Amino acid sequence: MTSNSNATHLPTTDATKGAGVIVGGGVLRNANNGHEMAPLNTRARGDGHHGVTIVLSPPQRRSISSLSAPGGDDPTRAAWSGKMQFFLSIIGYSVGLGNIWRFPYLCQQNGGGAFLIPFMIMLVLEGIPLFLIELGIGQRMRLGCLGVWNTIHPWLGGIGISSCIVTLFVAIYYNVIITWCIYYFINSFRYPLPWSECPRLGPNNTFVDECLRSSETEYFWYRDTLDASPSIDDNGGFKWWIIICLILAWLVVFFIVMKGIQSSGKAVYFTSLFPYLVLTIFFVRGITLPGAGAGLMHMYKPKVEMLLLPNVWLDAATQVFYSFGLAFGSLIAFGSYNTPKNNCVRDVLLVSLCNAFTAIYASVVIFAILGFKATKNTESCIDVNRQLLLNHHLTNDTNLLDDAVTNMVNQLNSTNSTSIKDWGLQICSLEDNLSKAAEGTGLAFIIFTQAIVELPGSTIWAVLFFTMLLALGLGSQIGMLEGMLCTIFDIDIFKRVRKPILTGVVCLFCFIVGLIFTTGAGEYWLKMFDSFAGTLGLVVVAFMEMIAVIYVYGHKKFTEDIYQMTGYRPGWYWQLTWRYIGPGLMSILLVASVWGYIKEVPKYKAWDAVLGKGVELHYPNWVMAIALGMIFAGILPMPLVYLLRRFQILKVDLDIHQGSIRRNETTASTKEMIDQDDDAMSPDMPLPPASSLAATRFTIGDFDRNEDDDMKEIKIRQKHY
């Protein structure tokens, strides 16, 4: 062996004790592992003891299937107890509240049945390809969101941080929706239902004016439940009944996720299956109600001309993106708990079909019952008009048919519209009642609750409905927290902290921040979070995920990984959507999201107690500053981590195995390679002189790795304090 004059020599040990090491330009032969270390170039020799160059030449190239994943050798990593538990967990996470109260609204507003065309196209071109990327890369790496992107390249570590931050924002406000469901669930056991009639006040037992100006369900929602303030500037104080329900909601979530999938895996049997049972019960009841056919006709009557509008396609792409729960890190976490040979391609296709089926199925149920509600409202309106016509002596026929009443009022309206207003007559139209669209909380807590009141045995239906919403909400909330906690648990400094303790700290933090939603302005804050915290950030994260896997990790490498794990080699469809169509659609969605914020000043709907209806207001500047802060908090970690690591401002210590290797056509794990280095340095080996290493620590900076048929090269830079 030869070395340069500046090298520090360590005597070689025998084969039973490991290996000798030469620091500097020397050569080392590892008798156990067959690794040969030698100077590679002149520059390496010139670095002296300030640089270390190591060449690992394995005795043979292992196949990809034999290489362990970065997290694969961790005996403490959780794993699914069975295929059914995994499938139900991912169904419970993906199929959430958006399938119930968002998709039907979009169908109604964007061409009825024609909306299914752009929805299915976007599902195939955008949703399924990105779904497989997240699930497949998680299963391949067997790491959480942060570990996966750090492992692909340290410069991409910010993707995991951004995903975790956005997930935190969404989890904070999403549990407030569960809180409201708990409050309604508790009140569903009262008879009659508290939102079925206006409350009475005073010695004369008169109805509350605010309720008369709005409706029974609106009054119960805005006044009894939220005690809504007139604007977001006026917080209206904390509402103790909502705080109690929020505590209960976070306690339920904590006990479900406190032990990871060991505990949450048992809850998914309820959160995933019960909603389908309730939907089926509502379906059987709904299609037998009068007016159900009218509701379904209104819902699915195709308006093909609307497919020419860009917003229809944008809404379809957005719905697909959010209905799958992409970019939260949860799918990566779920995939990391799978065995390396799990058929993730089949899982993606099955879950995608279930997701689309659930959205369409729920729409049928919702609009069958809303058709019944619209029919009842129209009949009540006609009955009132009939009585008014008799009172004003416009007819003497007490048995006047509904169509005759409607025609008479329409004729009066065409000749003397002022008079019919003075007489209190109304235009009663089934189509107008069906067109009163609502989404989100408006659909669940106002429109649908009014429909439930009209059903015989309304208490039972209310209990079933809000139990279903609770199950759907908990399924998604559990998935989001699991993804976030998986990321935290994969950080070495938290590995010694017990999972229940760390989970409790996260839940407590979310509860404290969530108290802002228990004020009179709580719903306004929730809409602000929903509009800003989890929209643009998620789109950027999803776009970067696709770029990271397909163009940094390599689409060929990822294709080979899928083949080794499943036995199926992704063909032209996957290659086209991964490399071109998917990134293109995500770019369009990103630009459209930014343009949506720019083209008009964001507004929110506040409750006006005097008018008895919602009014649109502009967000004040200080609220917009908070909103922009949340957007940047979810996006900035990506460029920030890139800059810090690109220019060597921040180093990653050797004891953090995640985020230490930049991969280029390779799959070997960082942890595996560090462990090999540790094995080479036997504890019995004499140490080098203190003068050469006393003030030195090893860090991994730019970590270039190229693999050919004979050797793997690693360049590790040594940095002085």
TrEMBL record:
Membrane disposition: Multi-pass membrane protein
One biological process term in Gene Ontology: amino acid import across plasma membrane
Localization in the cell: Membrane
UniProt key word Transmembrane: yes
Keyword annotations: Membrane, Metal-binding, Sodium, Symport, Transmembrane, Transmembrane helix, Transport
Domain of life according to the entry: Eukaryota
Stretches that traverse the bilayer: 86-103, 115-137, 158-186, 240-261, 273-300, 320-337, 349-370, 460-481, 501-526, 532-555, 576-598, 622-644
Residue ranges, annotated region (Disordered): 666-686
Positions of Na(+) binding: G92, V95, N99, S323, N355, L472, S476
GO cellular component: plasma membrane
Primary location: membrane
GO MF, one annotated term: L-amino acid transmembrane transporter activity
InterPro entries for the chain: Na/ntran_symport (IPR000175), SNS_sf (IPR037272)
Family classification: Belongs to the sodium:neurotransmitter symporter (SNF) (TC 2.A.22) family.
Protein name: Transporter
UniProt source species: Chironomus riparius
